[in-house]
Amino acid sequence: MKAMLIRGGRVVDPSQNLDDILDILIQDGKVAKCGKQLKDSQAEIIDAKGKLVTPGLVDIHVHLRDPGLEYKEDIGSGTLSAVAGGFTSIACMPNTKPVNDNHTITRYILEKAAKEGHCRVFPIASITKGLSGESLSELGELREAGCYGASDDGKPVGNSEMMRRAMEYARPFGMTIISHAEDLSLVGSGVMNEGPVSTELGLKGIPWVAEDAATARDIMLAELTGCHLHVAHVSTKGSVELIRQAKRRGAPVTCEATPHHFTLTDEAVRGYNTNAKMNPPLRSEEDRLAICQGLADGTIDAIATDHAPHHIDEKNVEFNIAMNGVVGLETALPLTLKLVQDRVIDLNRAIELLTCGPSEALGLPVGGLQVGGDADLTIIDLDRKWTVAASQLNSKSKNTPFDGWAMQGAAVCTIVAGEIVYKLD
Amino acid sequence: MAFQHKHILGIESLSREDIELILNTGDAFKEINGRDIKKVPTLRGKTIINAFFEASTRTRLSFEIAGKRLSADTVNISGSTSSVVKGETLEDTAKNIEAMAPDIIVIRHGHSGAPHYLAERLETCSVVNAGDGAHEHPSQALLDLMTMREHKGRIEGLEVAIVGDITHSRVARSNIYALSKMGARVRLAGPGTMLPPGIERLGNVEVCANLLDAIKDADVVMMLRIQLERQSQTLLPSLREYARFYGLNTENIKLAKEDAIVMHPGPMNRGVEISTYVADGIQNVILDQVANGVAVRMALLYLVSGVESMQTQ
Amino acid sequence: MAKRETIILDQAGVNRAITRIAHEILERNKGSANLVLIGIRSKGDTLAGHLNVLIGEIEGEQVPLGAVDITMYRDDLAERGSLPIGKTDIPFPLDGKHVILVDDVLYTGRTIRSAMDALMDFGRPSSIQLAVLIDRGHRELPIRADFVGRNVPTSREEQVEVVFTDDHNPLEVRLIKP
């Protein structure tokens, strides 16, 4: 493999508090050297002057839909979408058909990713078999097969006893339990956030307490069992505050927030826009601001997309019956950079939230640029202006609420294990 | 000013002037309903599809009569007889209907926003909302206003109490918009489980603690139909208790102004939201509402037809 | 370019014409028995009111007076859009009556066609007779007036306008050239 020298970029790696104009030399897929004025006559030179060089971005919440739902996305298209968005590692959720509740499915995902994937894929196991909430998946073997965490994403584990046992069982295997925090009895047939907008549109609302109550339960179970709990897609002010307090107590809790929850509110549903329908739903401005605060003060550890591709036929219907979810891999980076432009967080924090933040939350062996480590890098042009066109997305599905949005900042080169997997222009 | 709305999706998007024009047009059409020959050639050659994807007798009948009295050809399809049950999408159903070149589709649908969905996707037809989920029921609010104006001589300044299941009521939402735009004041009352958050932001609305506060000195008392199945949805303990705290009866109606009128969008549950004695009392104008329904729907069908014509010129 | 207006009938002229029409109506119908007046909105109804006053003065009693709005009967919805609809007010039966239909200006005849369609929906009159203040020609339908105040040859580009005072008395008739 040919060596590669990335020259003159501003290297930001929050995992080692690095922020300097440096050259990076890559050899055999590893970071060989990192320093000033590096030279290698054999190496392919990549000029990164004026650009940002970061560890490859990490998204710990992606739905690849493979196996079984390939009409929405598959491992090839999903990972292509990932690298186009600057991501070099993604964790994929187990709600496939069949569910990733045994090591055979995990192996299938990993093998297909190795063959057809464009980036690293870390499968997430289901907590319960078939996401049924009734009996535990074989978490030990799943961990062995390569699952760092387990989640019944899309469905909460409703039975508190089951959640307790899952945490107790997962802990010795070093697995993170990921909570999709929702009290389904409070959700009922709700389809959007409960508030003035749902009242106006005549749509059944989902109150904030449906999330907060479930978040509180799972935090307490984590404290009871000592298992690492990761709360997925935090969307309410209350949940952010519950996690803030839990962290203060030293509870083993991390959490993530999505770009759509820190960017949009339930106002986006107006006009019955099914691309603004997701679970958890877009919340109020107060909630959005609380998420921003949580991102800034460290309560929220990671930005994760909850990339949820759906076929046009599943979105081009009445709001009530449209599927939940939006694609997010290709818009996450510029939306995060918008937080920097809006002075919500600084650039280093933004990169942290997209690299070592998520990888540490799930215990993934990625997210940094340590010498000797895997050469996963993203080169970002902070000034590049572009407009989102849903039809041009690399994902098989085009269900984005950001179609037509003007963005600033883009990944111009994505490198996985020393190989360029995506390059813009 | 000519009417500009090709579709009638809700009161929210209408101006006060639009509402006044619709009511005046309705007044003019009302005269036809008293003739021996109750038919004028205004919409001769137009085809109106009444697409009712949710059960309704009264509204469908009213729209059908309205269309026929204007000489339009009206065709009804309902959820059970159309191909909706066969798993076809609403868009396909609508496009198939549109391919047969109707001029207006009147739609009643259980999903909020279904008429908007159609209006965005149909190319030539006008869409008239005959009730969508818990969102809007514009023709009902317009016939209510027409009835209020007939009995009170005005709408501006009226105190209108709306009582019942506000959460699930498209009638309440459309009336709140319409009454607020016309300068009336709305007071709402209902069980705590049936008052949705932020309802007061929809217009000139006061949420009252109980039925009595809402109807005290009101000019108009509008009782909403309570869906009997709400008992089983954790929203109500019993209809008996509902009737006791939120039902209109000969005693509590005395709190309203002496000349107050009593309205109900129908069909009534006698003995639940309204006692038989009030339902049959002299203050009730429920049958006037029904009669005005035909006139106001004639007005809507006529007005949207003109817009469509001008646009295709 | 300024439009040119000429007064083709002044107030005295209009009054003379209406008076003559009143007499002719009574003469033709041998009095006012079974006679009803129906004016076409929005100017024919005002003229019909004046005719009825004159009939009352001559006969000692006015006849039933109604108004018809022909918007619902127009044949030009596609061209004109939804025009505001006025109220039709015919609070008496037409069966067996001699209906005098009154309008200000007779032009293509289409308004009269619409008005006659409307009247037929109210019953079966013995006859319908047409009284107009001005007949300006250019008929597009086989319709003629029974009583005419003044025949005015015009071109299609011109307009004829009957003007009333604020208290609804006839003032004059103007010919407006483009």
Provide a concise account of the structure shown:
The complex is a heterotrimer of chains A (425), B (313) and C (178). Chain A is 30% helix and 23% strand.
Number of strands of chain B: 9
Relative strand content of chain B: 5-15%
Strand order of the largest sheet of chain B: 7-6-5-8-9
What is Rg of chain B?
Answer: 19 Å
The major pleated sheet of chain A works out as: 8 strands, mixed
- Under CATH, the homologous superfamily of the largest domain in chain A reads Metal-dependent hydrolases
Largest sheet data of chain B: 5 strands, parallel
- Compute the average pLDDT of chain A: 97
Give the integer mean of the pLDDT values of chain B: 92
Measured by residues with Cβ under 8 Å of the partner chain's Cβ, the largest interface is:
B-C, 29 and 23 residues
Order of helices and strands of chain B: HEHEHEHEHEHEEHEHEHH
Structural class of chain B: alpha/beta
Low-confidence stretches of chain B: none
Per CATH, which architecture of the largest domain in chain A?
Answer: Alpha-Beta Barrel
Helix content of chain A: 25-40%
Globally, the shape of chain B reads: globular
For the record, the CATH class of the largest domain in chain A is: Alpha Beta
Strand content of chain A: 15-25%
Give an account of the 3D structure:
- The complex is a heterotrimer of chains A (425), B (313) and C (178).
- With 425 residues, chain A is an alpha/beta fold.
- Chain A folds into two domains: 4-53 and 373-423, Urease, subunit C, domain 1 (Roll), CATH 2.30.40; 56-362, Alpha-Beta Barrel (TIM Barrel), CATH 3.20.20.
- Chain A has 14 helices and 18 strands.
- Chain A is globular and about 65 Å long.
- The model of chain A has no long low-confidence stretch (mean pLDDT 97).
- With 313 residues, chain B is an alpha/beta fold.
- In chain B, the strands form two sheets. Chain B has a five-stranded parallel beta sheet with strand order 7-6-5-8-9.
- In chain B, helix 4 links the parallel strand 3 (104-109) and strand 4.
- In chain B, helix 3 crosses helix 4 (114-121), helix 5 (138-152) crosses helix 6 and helix 5 packs across helix 10.
- The mean pLDDT of chain B is 92.
- Chain C has 178 residues and is of the alpha/beta class.
- Chain C has one domain (4-75, 84-177): Rossmann fold (3-Layer(aba) Sandwich).
- Chain C has a five-stranded parallel beta sheet.
- In chain C, strand 7 and strand 8 (170-177) form a beta hairpin.
- In chain C, helix 1 (11-28) crosses helix 2.
- The mean pLDDT of chain C is 93.
